[in-house]
Amino acid sequence: xxxxxxxxxxxxxxxxxxxxxxxxxxxxxxxxxxxxxxxxxxxxxxxxxxxxxxxxxxxxxxxxxxxxxxxxxxxxxxxxxxxxxxxxxxxxxxxxxxxxxxxxxxxxxxxxxxxxxxxxxxxxxxxxxxxxxxxxxxxxxxxxxxxxxxxxxxxxxxxxxxxxxxxxxxxxxxxxxxxxxxxxxxxxxxxxxxxxxxxxxxxxxxxxxxxxxxxxxxxxxxxxxxxxxxxxxxxxxxxxxxxxxxxxxxxxxxxxxxxxxxxxxxxxxxxxxxxxxxxxxxxxxxxxxxxxxxxxxxxxxxxxxxxxxxxxxxxxxxxxxxxxxxxxxxxxxxxxxxxxxxxxxxxxxxxxxxxxxxxxxxxxxxxxxxxxxxxxxxxxxxxxxxxxxxxxxxxxxxxxxxxxxxxxxxxxxxxxxxxxxxxxxxxxxxxxxxxxxxxxxxxxxxxxxxxxxxxxxxxxxxxxxxxxxxxxxxxxxxxxxxxxxxxxxxxxxxxxxxxxxxxxxxxxxxxxxxxxxxxxxxxxxxxxxxxxxxxxxxxxxx
Length: 542
Ligand SMILES: NC(=O)C1=CN([C@@H]2O[C@H](COP(=O)(O)OP(=O)(O)OC[C@H]3O[C@@H](n4cnc5c(N)ncnc54)[C@H](O)[C@@H]3O)[C@@H](O)[C@H]2O)C=CC1
Ligand SMILES: CC(=O)C(=O)O
Ligand SMILES: [Mg+2]
Known about the structure:
Layout: H1 4-22, H2 34-37, H3 50-55, H4 69-86, H5 92-109, H6 111-120, H7 122-129, H8 133-139, H9 141-144, E1 151-154, H10 161-164, E2 175-179, H11 196-209, E3 216-222, H12 228-232, H13 246-263, E4 268-271, H14 276-286, E5 292-294, H15 295-314, E6 327-330, H16 334-351, E7 361-365, E8 368-369, H17 400-407, E9 411-414, H18 424-431, E10 439-442, H19 454-461, E11 466-469, E12 476-479, E13 482-484, E14 486-488, H20 495-505, H21 512-524, H22 528-532
Helix pairs in contact: 5-6, 5-8, 6-7, 6-11, 11-20, 15-16, 15-21, 17-18, 18-19
Bound molecules: 1,4-dihydronicotinamide adenine dinucleotide (NAI), pyruvic acid and magnesium ion (MG).
Residues 272-273, 295-296 line the site of magnesium ion.
Binding site for a divalent metal cation: 272-273, 296
Protein name: Malic enzyme
Active site: 130 (proton donor), 201 (proton acceptor)
């Protein structure tokens, strides 16, 4: 079991790792003078000691006083705290963007200080650099853009990518997060503006897995957008054309993958926020050729499975009881289907019966309960479609309320991207479920797209629930000193470890077995005491 001592040891080794890889021993800077001050990888601002100022041609380019790293750190945190105070009472989006701006400016100026600040305050800053604020940043990216970060490959670069990849200044890249911007969180197609997601994900790699920030690369593959508002926006920074489709689309992704693995054969590519059809197709196309994975399908599934196993324990049942859990999954997209596939594999392993492994799982999409009677049934959803004979009292397309009333599930898990679909009626119906401790996973992002809020879940489904959401909510005060614990069921608990594990083991491919091991490992961190309090995942700052 995970003890305090191990926590402390792991934090220590993580920070050592960060410093040993982020600031490699004999770090040779090939730049001089002002070029160094304008390079966030090497810039120390006023922190350059006098000897370095002489050696690097910086004398006279900085005010004379040398400010230590610790003083710079304290000064930044002071500015941040005063900004926090000054934006209190302002609309949430204004305050959130102000916090993002101050962090982003530091990121653009001095990465060493930025990552130190981020790692030490990850719990406070994750909602800014990651969900929910990163969603707002993507929505407004063309207006917020000041300095480029990462690489942009567009449909106009066809035939050029092999040479373009050598424009990236780092000799070595370990982790790439790639998006085509087609399904950014629950916000839909944001085209080139989706670059904010790879940037935020890679910040988590540095903060949580100690990956060297000079060896990460956020990438936007701009194949156009079908977002009319963006196409009409004269300040939009991406290609103003409809998305490429079919073979034209795939040839762009193929060319990118070939270019990346030619220059960096040991890199790992994480596919992120691709619309469902391309998420599945690219995973199948590349997973046996390159070291890659799809975070929305596979990372999310691992985190959800860890939470589902924790839920069984929270109900006071043995893990062997997992196959008997009745689970309703709302959302048949890349994330929902990824979760179901992994949960079904887990049940099949436990029972040895693959044919009946999906028996207790129910899948709904925007047209309601998915059954074998569904016209144009998506092949990816077919393994989870119910046989009409199996669901007495329910029909094809039954509403969520009907399903919850009839099935009386142990778990209601949302990956629909639709805010509020776990309505008051649905939550009250769950209150009547058979389960000793029903669980609600409102996993869609950002906050406004969550299937329900934490407060509504505890209010309508009762205090005896387990609650998790994709974006953070505050714990809920239930009165009489009782607290409704809010978990953050987000793939951020797994992807940094998947990338780090694949990288340091030199894995050539990322297999289902590795993802399953990651999920089980995450679940095993939790003590019985925590699980009894409804805590399913470790605290973010650990
Ligand atoms: N917490 C986490 O770690 C993660 C959360 N997500 C979130 O999950 C959401 C969905 O992501 P994807 O599966 O990739 O999207 P997707 O677009 O592939 O799938 C969305 C699914 O929801 C269904 N849906 C839409 N309206 C519905 C309604 N009213 N009732 C029931 N189902 C409805 C659609 O039919 C579709 O099957 C997004 O908001 C995303 O942010 C995704 C990955 C990880
Ligand atoms: C967390 C995440 O990957 C998503 O919402 O898409
Ligand atoms: Mg995602």
